[in-house]
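Morning. Coffee machine broken again, so started the prediction first thing and wrote up yesterday's gels while waiting. Chain of 142 residues, entered below exactly as on the submission form.
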Amino acid sequence: MSKRYFTIFLTSLAAFLAVSWTLGIHHCDASWNESVLFFVMTYLYLKKYGHPLPVALCIVAGRFLPNTMLAVTTLLVGEEIRPLASWYMDMMSAAGVVAGVVYYKWQHAYVLAALTAVAVILNTLVQPLWFELVQHLTINHH
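Came back before lunch.
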C-alpha cells in the first residue's frame, strides 16, 4: 500500500474515532456527523488524488476497522454481536462515501441537490423508522 493510501486510511480511522462520541449524545446528530464527514473527506481526497475506487476503499477500511475488530472479538468470546441500532451509523458513513464519489464524478448543482435531499431523508425521516424497527425486533426476539 502506498503512503498516500495509508494516510487516507489513517485519516478515516482517526476521523471516525474523533466523532464516534457523538453517538452518546443523540443518534440523529451522530448520523449527520458521520454522513457529512465521510462525504466531505471522500470528495476532498478524490479532488486531491483522483482514483475513486482505491480512495473510497481506504476510507471505508479506516471507518470500519474498529467495528470489524469489535465484531471479531465479540464472536471469539461468545457474546452477542453489537446491536442492530448501531448499524445505521455504518450505513450513513458508507452513504457519505458513496455520495462523495458520486459528486466527484458528476459535479453539478442538481447532483449536489439530489444528494442533499437523500441525506436529509436518510438522516431525519428514515432514521426514526430504523430505530422503531430495531426496537420492535428486539422486543419480539426476547
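Helices lie at 3-19, 27-49, 52-77, 87-105, 109-141. Going to sketch it on the whiteboard this afternoon.
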